[in-house]
Amino acid sequence: MRETEIQAAWYGLETCEKCAIRHLVLFADLTSDDFNSVHLPIEDIWLPPGTALYQQEQPASALFTVREGLIKLEQYLADGGYRIVSLVGQGDVAGLEATVSPHYEHTAVALLPTKVCRLPRDVVAKLSPKLNRQLMEKWHAMVQRSHQCMRELSTGSARQRMARLFLLLAPSSVEHCRLFGRDDVGALLGITTETACRVVSDFKKRRVIVEVASNIFRRDAQALELISDGD
Amino acid sequence: MRETEIQAAWYGLETCEKCAIRHLVLFADLTSDDFNSVHLPIEDIWLPPGTALYQQEQPASALFTVREGLIKLEQYLADGGYRIVSLVGQGDVAGLEATVSPHYEHTAVALLPTKVCRLPRDVVAKLSPKLNRQLMEKWHAMVQRSHQCMRELSTGSARQRMARLFLLLAPSSVEHCRLFGRDDVGALLGITTETACRVVSDFKKRRVIVEVASNIFRRDAQALELISDGD
DNA sequence: CGCCTTTTTGAGCGTATTCAACATACGTGG
DNA sequence: CCACGTATGTTGAATACGCTCAAAAAGGCG
Predict the structure, then answer these.
(1) Hey, CA dihedral for A220, A225, A226, A228, is it positive or negative?
(2) By C-alpha distance, which of A132, A67, A122 is closest to A94?
(3) At residue B8, does pLDDT exceed 70?
(4) Which whole number is the average pLDDT over A167-189?
(5) A215: left (phi over 0), alpha (psi -120 to 50) or beta
(6) Which residue from A minimizes the CA distance to B149?
(7) What sign results for the dihedral spanned by CA atoms A116, A117, A120, A121?
(8) pLDDT over threshold 80, residue B22
(9) Within 7 A of a protein CB, which nucleotides of strand D?
(10) Nucleotides of C under 7 A from a protein CB
(11) pTM of the shown model
């Protein structure tokens, strides 16, 4: 089992003030003084694929800004299975519920190699008045993401969903994109592992995607768009 | 076409201060003084089923607290169709994006007879500092709703989804519940109108639900739960 | 190299879709 | 009040799609 406790492969301290993606993150509006008023450490964590950031029902001690990579949010089903209900990508926040709820409401697991910043809930609570605007924005982004998953990844045929997934993984200007395990693809698109596999195979055969390395693909964006709304 | 402009069948002025569901709403924490500082009217609107509250892309001039009933949030698809991405029920807010975005991001339409309060964005902006806590809660509720729709209404077989819908429509303590048009049931569960229809028929035949009046059903909660996680 | 996990492929089956016909309800005007 | 038209709901038959179960192939990793 790969999805166990969080085992930071690597972590250190970062100066948020000179964060490269600062314009995207929660702390976008803070001043130097604000930073100085915070003495709690903010960790910078590297997550190999399959690493769990936190588990559903656990006490929500921190929230996490994604600097790079992709995280899945899953919830358990009555039958013991799970469903991926949303994704968290660059600039998004995982575990936002920590600001309003005592427990995490999802299990969050890295789908790709992912870098996150851990912000203890106390830090956020302390800076809360200054962060309000950005917190709203992050909630907003979270709702949008969730609705996007519903609209694009849970609607239409398996082929359509898969095509939309490939388009969503990276802007079409980016040469190639990395895909994750077929189980996760299935749980995300609401199809079985086997179907996910078959569709990927079919796309490869038709050269809509080309596997340049293990799970790294070059995509034909035009063809994918055709599939995504035609079938 | 029933889903046209908003045609308030009825509206008047309400004293928010003595609102029956005040504990549920955005204004829960406000004091008398706060209310006095607001002079803009807050309308109380009755929406017959099928009435659109607002349209996707329109300027977001207000947000709406649902006092009674049920509203669907839909988004258009590339092929011209639409998908219901979330529901808005009692105590929830439709059009929350008005607080952070210039345009509505969904089309909101009443599924059942529905009563809402219209809160102009200016009023909310003015009270914003006092409302922060409640706004966060509403965003949180919105995310939860959306994930619930994903988990319960967009996962599993058509029968399972339908069973979960009947359980979701009202607490099982409530004797009966009202269902809406088969088209909307389909768009919500991600199945076709015909399938929606067939499943409802089947449930009626098996007495899992009993139609006591047009689209009003008495439910066998136990049987529905069995279906919802067995099949 | 062998073991385990993940991915892939195949065959048969069941469910949901499609397309079509028919039924029912509702509202309007004759 | 009934006749008609439209919108909505219901049912049927054939098809297609995705699922299940099973087995084989292809990676990691000790």
Answers:
(1) positive
(2) A67
(3) no
(4) 96
(5) left
(6) A150
(7) negative
(8) no
(9) 8-12, 17-22, 27-28
(10) 6-11, 15-20, 25-26
(11) 0.91
Distance measured from the CA of protein residue B54 to the C1' of nucleotide D3, in angstroms: 38
The C-alpha torsion from A132 through A138 and A143 to A145, rounded to 10°, is: 170
Name the average pLDDT for chain A: 88
Place of tokens 């769990």: A52
The answer to whether the beta carbons of residues B55 and B5 sit under 8 Å apart is no
pLDDT at B13 over 80: no
Angle in degrees, CA B35, B41, B46, rounded to 5: 115
State what percent of residues in chain B have pLDDT above 70. 90
Q: Do B86 and A147 touch (CB under 8 A)?
A: yes
